[in-house]
Amino acid sequence: MPTTNTNSHDPADHGHGARDTSDGSNENTALLPSFLRGEIAHEGESGRHGFHPRHFIAVSYKSSNVVSQYVNFLWPFVPLAIIFRYTLPSHPLWIFGLAYVGMIPSANLLGFAGQEFAKKMPKVAGTLIETTFGSIVEIILFVVLIVKHREPVEGEDGGNGDEGNLIPIIQAAILGSILTNLLLCLGLCFFVGGLRKTTQKFHAAISETGNGLLLVAAFGLLIPSAFYSALKGETTIIKGSLGFVIAETKFTPEILQRDILKISQVTSVVLIIAFGCYLLFNARSQHSVFHEVIETDEHGDLDREEDQARMRYTGTETTVALIISLVFATLLLIYLVEQIEAVVESGVPDQFLGLILLPLVEKAAEHLTAIDEAYDGVINVALYHCLGPSIQTALFNGPLVVIVGWILHKPMDLNFEIFMIVLVVLGILVVGNFLRDGESNWLEGVLLVIVYVIIAIASWYYPNPDVATSNGIEGLAASANSKNVTIDRALLKDLLAMANLNT
Questions:
Q1: For the residues of 175-242, what is the DSSP string, one character each?
Q2: I need a surface site. Which of 124, 134, 461, 465 has the fewest CB within 10 A?
Q3: List of residues 6+ apart from 194 with CB closer than 8 A
Q4: What is the C-alpha to C-alpha distance for residues 268 and 398, in angstroms, rounded to an integer?
Q5: Rg (alpha carbons) of the chain, rounded to whole number
Q6: Contact (CB, 8 A) for 466 and 345
Q7: In 3D, which of 428, 464, 448 has the Cα closest to residue 341?
Q8: CB of 228 within 8 A of CB of 481?
């Protein structure tokens, strides 16, 4: 396959010396113009054109590493999930289980196709695009959840996922995705990398920038929850002698909820703007630094020769793989969401489902890629695959679902459970402490995984929103059988006076 890239791939050419190209650009040329010129990395070439079914299947099966190759043996679960969905709809737990397992090879193919597409791009652009493809499954999941969400009908015992209210599960999945990347995925990267190298060193440009952005993102996500916690006590609830609950103040729970929704919507727009600045920073301001870091890492790849010898997709085959994986992933995610009610009724808590189960399957491809890179000694790229998706979830994917809910007139907000938002902030601080010295070892990886396991145990015992909530409107009611009524103060005095006369 002819290549448009005439640059040398000698490591020295990526150092401090600038290289001239036909259009007068050099190494310090910003990424975006290079991206528009359509440069293709040498290692992304397949040497073929068009679509070849046999070759396509062979490349898809071998995938990017041994673990991903074994994951491909799970493909039979995909048609089984589809068959059960339409022939045995009365077995929701089977459908959920089959779709859950089937999501793993679908996400794996999407991640591998994203890698192949990224290899045909300039270094930094390819890494950014690869991370984005890894998060597509998450975006689809959030959108499917918010579309399937319905408000509890008057007279129903509303408040949790098994009543059609999927917002608590979406909120848990947003924070769970961040925790899964920062604690489980990064911990496994440190562990497997430490098994092959006693100490792995990473560049401050990636670790410090990523950790700083996560702190800012956590601050943005925390504001609506903190606002609610600070003011929920100001909505005074008084038990009247007439047998119903009376709100004495004009600042009612409904007004507070409306304000929280507005704050969440505006905050989401600001966070998406911040994500755009982050992409621009990577693409232009720090392009040379990131390019050099990634290039150095790849030349230090312990399996570099084996990776270069692998068969590649053509451009057409890459597109076909992306389409196939996206179609199957979307179908299976819809099946998963349809069965959430049955799963919760079977005894799986809402918070565990959103915080642990869903993030594990939606991030499967990203995790396999990062762990394989860490094992190969490409720790900076692996670190980026852990921090990058977390940043995208906090600054883009989470805010995006709030905006989608805004468009669909569904009250999706960022008023997270205090328990979960504290976990995320502490998780970011723990990871930041481990990244501070610029190196990692297997013990640090084990410690991060242990923290994640403890969080999973706690989330299993955390009650569903209809039972108890730290940041929900339900908590403002005096009791489950009480009715909130907004009433004028003067009318309140008249009613109390009438009640006293009757007694």
A1: HHHHHIIIIIIHHHHHHHHHHHSS-EE--HHHHHHHHHHHHHHHHHHHHHHHHHHHHGGGS-EEE-TT
A2: 461
A3: 200, 440, 441, 442, 443, 444, 445
A4: 8
A5: 26
A6: no
A7: 464
A8: no
Question: Of 399, 351, 462, 465, nearest to 223 (Cα)?
Answer: 399
Listing from the earlier edge strand, what are the strands of the sheet with 237-239?
237-239, 245-247, 484-486
CA max distance for the chain: 96
pLDDT category, 267, cuts 50, 70, 90?
A: very high
Token output for 253: 């729970």
Residues 6 or more apart whose CB falls under 8 angstroms from that of 131 comprise: 366, 384, 385, 388, 389, 392
Amino acid at 429: L
Q: Residue type for 88, please?
A: L
Structure tokens at 370: 């990062």
**DSSP H or E stretch at residue 81:** helix 77-87
Token output for 211: 């950790």
Under 8 Å CB-to-CB from 167, ≥6 apart: which residues? Answer: 146, 149, 410, 411, 412, 413
Tokens representing 192 are 């497997």
Question: Which residues, in sequence order, are CB contacts of 414 under 8 Å at separation 6+?
Answer: 171, 221, 223, 224, 225, 263, 264, 267, 268, 398, 399, 402
Global model pTM greater than 0.70: yes
Q: What are phi and psi of 171, to 5 degrees?
A: -60, -45
Pairing label, strands 439-440, 245-247: unpaired
407 vs 164, higher pLDDT:
407
Q: Report residue 251 as tokens.
A: 């600042």
Written as one letter, the residue type at 417 is: E
Closest-CA residue to 125 (of 320, 298, 284, 315)? 284
CB 225 within 8 A of CB 415: yes
